[in-house]
Amino acid sequence: MKIRRTLATAVAAAITTPAVLLSVTPAFADSKPAAESRAKPTIEELEKAAAEAQKAYDKALAAKDAGYEELKTALSDKAPLAVTAAAARKAATEAAAAKTAADQAVTDARAALADLPDTATDAERTAAEKAVTDAETAAATAATAKTEADTKATEAGTASDDARVAAARAYSVLQNALADALAAKTAADEALTKARDEEKGGQDCVGADLRAAVTGMPASVTAGTTTTFSLRVGNGTKQTLDAVTTYAHVHTTDTTGLKTTDGYMHLQWSTAASPKWRAVPADHLISGLGPLKAGAHTDVKLRLTVDAKAPAGNGVVLTSADYVNKDGSCGGGAGMDTYAFTVKAAGSKTGTTGGTGEGAGTGTGSGSGSSGATGSTGGSGQQAQGSASDDSVTAGGGLASTGASDATVPLGLAGGAAVVLGGAAVLVVRRRRAGAEA
């Protein structure tokens, strides 16, 4: 029996938080019929809606990418208004220096006049007095020039800052538009998948007391180093789960939040049953964990290597788990857990293990019990069958303080006068129907 299931992610902008979870309810999902109920959409209609949503999303993504380039240009020191402002500041500095020199000339002229000896001729005294007058006139002119230069520098600086703020606000609008388009696309895709599976006689994946939680991860990692930690998957249900898959992904940005730095992060995994280190696949799914008995847990050892050239910034580890049984039933945990941490430049000291995780649990599952057990720092890599009575992994709640970071700093802050928060991770956990196909 071939089971179809999807555990997908999409990255979009977060305006005020380091990482948020987005759960989208299909626009065409079944609900209680209203008085003005209409006929259920056909597959063709849903396909058309999904195609249109995809086009809208592609358009919003292109607009967001173009807006990002414009934002970079606006924030650059080479932007026209920035160049003008820099020139104005330079002129103001030169005017200030000229005024200082003119004031000194007045002081010197007055001193020369005062130092004239009694034997000085009338011509010499007249010349000294004229020198004072001329110096005072030049000083007044320099003072006026400085005032005008200062005014121009202020106006030019304000214009440059205003342009940067405007560009940041425009980019924020594009980010929000992309998030809206993603939500619409997700809803349309979910509705189409549900309708297709209904047509093929599949069954719904359901929420389950299944949880994947990070343990032993420090609050910060440093470029050029390798960090080993654990991912514990706990089965808090009352049944054996035949095939369990977990999801593990590390998403990072630089300190501005405008640049994704995932390419510098290399995540590997291993277990006691499969001790050789393997790269986490591109879809971030770690399968082959085998069956998991009711109340048991299994540990996956994770190793994060950060390139030496990785810039300082912020990151988040995202984890989840789901299962498929031999009878075609399937499901997943209560949601996606997040673990925030910071990335330090090469040569910095690493953080210490400890803190509080961000186990938001906002997916589509409905588990509420406890599962798993406390993992040791650095991860045991043991595929043990533990008791579900331990409380470090709670299916519907937060993550116990066994290695989660309390770093809740935003993932990005644009510089200058433009305040733009972005680059946060937005995850969509899709529980799609499993179709029975021999």
Q: How is this structure best described in words?
A:
With 438 residues, the protein is an alpha+beta fold. Helices cover 33% and strands 19% of the residues. The chain contains three helices and 14 strands. The strands form three sheets. Strands 2, 4, 6, 9, 11, 12 and 13 form a seven-stranded mixed sheet that branches. A hairpin with a 7-residue loop joins strand 7 and strand 8. Helix 1 runs antiparallel to helix 3. The termini are close together. The N terminus and C terminus are likely disordered.
Number of helices: 3
User: How many DSSP E strands?
Assistant: 14
Low-confidence stretches: 1-37, 352-438
| Quaternary form | single chain
- Average pLDDT works out at 75
Radius of gyration: 32 Å
N-to-C series of helices and strands: EHHHEEEEEEEEEEEEE
Q: From the helix content, strand content and strand pairing, which structural class follows?
A: alpha+beta
What coarse outline follows from CA principal-axis ratios? Answer: elongated
Percent strand: 15-25%
Main sheet record: 7 strands, mixed
Query: What is the terminal-to-terminal distance?
Result: 5 Å
Binned, the helix content reads 25-40%
